[in-house]
Amino acid sequence: MPPWHPEEGTTLHAARDVDGHPIVIVDASSSGFTFRYADGTMLWLDRRGTQLWCTWPAESTLDDAATYLIGPALAFLLRLRGALALHASGVAVDDVAVAFVGPHAAGKSTVAAAFGRRGFPLLTDDVLRLTRDDGRWSVEPFGGILRLWPESELIVLQSHGTLPRITPTWDKLALTIGERGTKPALDRVRLGAVVFLDPREPGEVAPRLVALRPAETVLRLAINSSASHLLDTARRAEEFVAIDTLVREVPAVVAIARDDVGSFDAFVDEVLNWVRAHKRAA
Q: Each residue of 150-178: b (16+ CB within 10 Å) or e?
């Protein structure tokens, strides 16, 4: 625990399940921030995002704690340091990065894994960090695994039960980057496209891509920015300025897959063709 624990604070955010039981409560004090999870895991971050502490109950494992550390805690740490971070996965297509953006269970890791299996370098999963250098946005590589649900293993690998669980207490599976035909991106890559993943649809209308107006793109990026609900007013304002710049420079589209396994390759083809067409146009 940090030396300033327990320092009295105020609640920034409280997420609850359908029965009203707390899943996570985030408090802010003069020294930092405290994350209290329902399973007894606790995280602390100092105000500048330079130090992080974690404790977990005896029945949990280090791997269980790490799911919090490299998810919500990492996202908020990046935001405290002034970085723009999206709830997204990322791959490198030719010489540009593609961000697959969407809420929980949108299929971000599944689509990234499918691109990875085709030989495109994998940049990141779940938390996508953007930096601005020389007047352009770039994606920073991070992470050693993709986190897949069992259904995604079937879609991407056409197998079942061959990937290990990330932890014994969680259903998500680990696809190690560098295995199963995948490879990591070794350096930052210029952001070339943003693909928003909407819910899958039945019937012949999918797979399809839907164009976006700039205002819609701004709204979707703001909704899917990591840990934005924990930012103060000044940092939130800075975020909107950054998002406005990104929208002016990077093309975006909504991608909708069909709700069956057999059409997934066609969906990936559709997205890949769009990325390459807009890359040539740029």
A: eebbebbbeeeeebeebbeeeebbbbebe
More confident residue, 105 or 181: 181
Q: How many folded domains does the chain comprise? A: 2
Q: Mean pLDDT, to the nearest integer, of 252-267?
A: 90
Q: Are residues 158 and 220 in the same domain?
A: yes
Span 53-66, mean pLDDT?
92
* pLDDT of 260 higher than 90: no
Alpha helices in the chain (DSSP H): 62-68, 74-80, 108-117, 150-157, 214-223, 233-249, 264-281
Residues 113 and 49 in one domain: no
- Domain identity same for 130 and 43: no
pLDDT average, residue stretch 248-252? 95
> Is 5 a member of any domain?
no
User: Does 66 reside within a domain?
Assistant: no
Q: Residue 278 pLDDT more than 70?
A: yes
The residue segments making up the domain with residue 38 are 10-60
